[in-house]
Amino acid sequence: MQALTSPPEGERTIDAKDLALAIAETLDAKKAEDVQIIDVGERLKVADFFVVCTGLSRAHVRGLYDEVHVRMKALGERHTPVQGADLGWWIVVDYSDVVVHILQPDAREYYDIDRLYDDCPRLGWTPSSDDERASSAGDERASSAGA
Fold it and tell me: How far apart are CA 98 and CA 100, in angstroms?
């Protein structure tokens, strides 16, 4: 197995679109709801994509952030200091070209990022089905037991 190595500081390891997809897949695997990838590149000059999702509780929102942080760090991606982790109401993680918004249901409804950027295209991707998640979790448990 090949060891993961970090790239030189400040050097992007994957392009923004692939990073947004990797983040969306990570969030989906941790049961985030209504994961959307919004292409804001033409409208905003500070980011290319927003990844927006809903976590069902403060603990779920924090857990989603933790998983994204760990997985993207393993890929060599770094973010600016996270905003909102202390409250777990709305966490913003800025990977420069990709900004992740993890919100509780009331926060998502109140701030309505989806409507605010309704004129921006959505990046199509296919979330895992619950059956695929269960199968994947079973595979991971089986490989862990054999290790």
Answer: 7
Instruction: Give the chain's domains with CATH numbers.
Output: 16-146 (3.30.460.10)
The rounded mean pLDDT for the chain is 85
Which residue has 């895992």 as its token pair? 128
Containing 108, the helix (H) or strand (E) segment is helix 105-111
pLDDT tens string 3-42 = 434 445 555 568 999 999 999 999 999 999 999 999 999 9
Residue 66 has pLDDT above 70, yes or no: yes
Given a contact cutoff of 8 angstroms between Cβ atoms, the answer to whether 114 and 36 are in contact is yes
Q: What pTM did the predictor assign?
A: 0.80
If DSSP states are collapsed to H, E and C, what string results for 42-104?
A: CCCCCCCEEEEEECCCHHHHHHHHHHHHHHHHHCCCCCCCCECCCCCCEEEEECCCEEEEEEC
